[in-house]
Amino acid sequence: MSRQSDLRLVALVATFVSTVSFIYFFRTDQILLYGDAVAHINIARRVFDSQTPGLLQLGTVWLPLPHLLMMPFLLSDSAWRNGAGGSVPSMVAFVLGAVGMYRLTASVGSRMAAWIASLAFTFNPNLIYMQSTAMTECMALATMIWAMVYLIDFAQNVEAESASATLRKAALILAAGILVRYDGWFFSACAGIAVLVIWWRSRKVARRLTQKALIQFLVLCAVTPALWFAFNYEVYGNALEFMNGPYSAQAIAARSSSSGGPPHPGYHRLTEATVYFQKSAKLNLGEKHIGDLIGLLALVGAMLCCGTKDKRPVLLLWAILPFYALSIAYGGVPIFMPQWWPHSYYNVRYGLQLLPAILVSCALLLDLAPVSTRNRKAAAVALALTFAVAAATVWRNTPICLREARVNSKSRIVFETNLAATLSLFPPQTRFLMYTGDHSGVLQRAGIAFKRVLNESNWPIWEDALNHPAGYADIMVAMDNDPLGPSAARNRERLEPLSVIHTAGQPTATIYRVLP
């Protein structure tokens, strides 16, 4: 069977897994468990459904490409309300990632290794759940994997006529990754260094032929994040708004610390941060000792790749490890796991970003181990069984990403469902004033279009409405600790309390009628 036939088969298997799993999680109401998934969907929806529609609705902190890709699928009200529209780009990225895993591994290893890496990726339980949601993990993985495909192609054929075209393809995919998640920035910087080294070590004639493509590569990888800096400066007056603004990870971590709680594990401790990230990666592979075994095999495989010139480029996949270690230690990005203090769930899904590095390193062990062909086949069977057992342990205990979503969504979903039920009782022409930064899912569940709701994304109208709500809304929804609380206190004489929504673990929401 040819490589093209293998790729088509991988695509079919991944598409089947993606479709079946999405149907299951959709029918069991589990694709909107992550609050971030709900937020991604509603950011995308606001671009065209808003009192002030336009690209400024993309906001800051989260990068724009996932939301732009979701938009066409959220034009349908039903696909918006049930969340299905937000899942489509993630599902497509999952299939592309599986195909890319085969291409990537086959470019430096055997067909057998490529099949094991791609199937282990396709049948990873945590990834199967995440691809059915509007989360960005699969998109980030797909861009990283396919960038590696073309980077390895460039490294192997730097003196061929196709080298320039290959380098341009890698640049376009890296630019897409830069606009998906911030780990794409770090990975692109590492890729740029690797490309420069490969280019410089090539023959003079090859350098001359690829010089223009190299400049285009470097410029595109530099200009893409610069555009995000410019967007933040133009909209917020602060080019670093996504890093140090009020909704950034650092600001959230600072508010948590000011509340009197101890710092999260790994805070300003790089070694501990590295340990927590690699633990989360193992938990996304398998429960208990099976995850440790796979991690050990990956480490051995990576070490053997160091000594093999044609396989050395795959080590670039491990650049994700220092990025997340630094982010945990100094970027206000904690990871909590139930097995270790503080024994809760938060950002465990980040460990999935190390999945390509681990799977490719493990699969390449089959080619690097000094054994006979017969023993290599036996080793392939053993490795495949190891991944199968790991997946079985994860399904038996419930994928940790799904557990995280379930645990952290319980009170939020109850609160949003109750508040949505109350708001849906008002007439269709009712205008609302509501802060949606934390609970945009209320409007999604109630089917209330954003163009009927004046919210914090509607600048500069929002600021005026906080001082004079009577001119902008019929109903105000104020929650504890949101900007409408002080507004309600200032305008008490012009507000009539209608009902109060109490939910354990969530803010109290008070619904007011705005008097003329």
Structural overview:
- The chain is mostly helical.
- It is 62% helix and 4% strand.
- The chain contains 22 helices and five strands.
- A five-stranded mixed beta sheet has the order 2-1-3-5-4.
- Helix 5 runs parallel beside helix 17.
- The longest helix is centred in the middle third of the chain and has 33 residues, at 204-236.
- The N and C termini lie far apart (75 Å).
- The mean pLDDT is 94.
Main sheet: which strands, in order across?
A: 2-1-3-5-4
Average predicted confidence as pLDDT: 94
- How many strands in all? 5
Which structural category fits the helices and strands?
mainly alpha
The percent range for strand residues is: under 5%
> What radius of gyration results from the CA coordinates?
25 Å
Give the termini separation.
Answer: 75 Å
Describe the sheet with the most strands. 5 strands, mixed
Question: Helix content range of the residues, please?
Answer: 55-70%
Q: Give unreliable regions as ranges.
A: none
- Give the overall silhouette: globular
Brief digest:
The chain is mainly α.
Topology:
Blueprint: H1 3-27, H2 35-46, H3 65-70, H4 77-81, H5 84-108, H6 111-122, H7 125-130, H8 137-156, H9 163-178, H10 183-201, H11 204-236, H12 241-244, H13 249-258, H14 270-283, H15 289-306, H16 320-330, H17 355-368, H18 373-397, H19 400-423, E1 432-434, H20 441-446, E2 453-454, H21 461-467, E3 475-479, H22 484-490, E4 495-501, E5 509-514
Helix pairs in contact: 1-5, 1-6, 5-6, 5-8, 5-17, 6-17, 6-18, 8-9, 8-10, 9-10, 9-11, 10-11, 14-15, 14-16, 15-17, 17-18
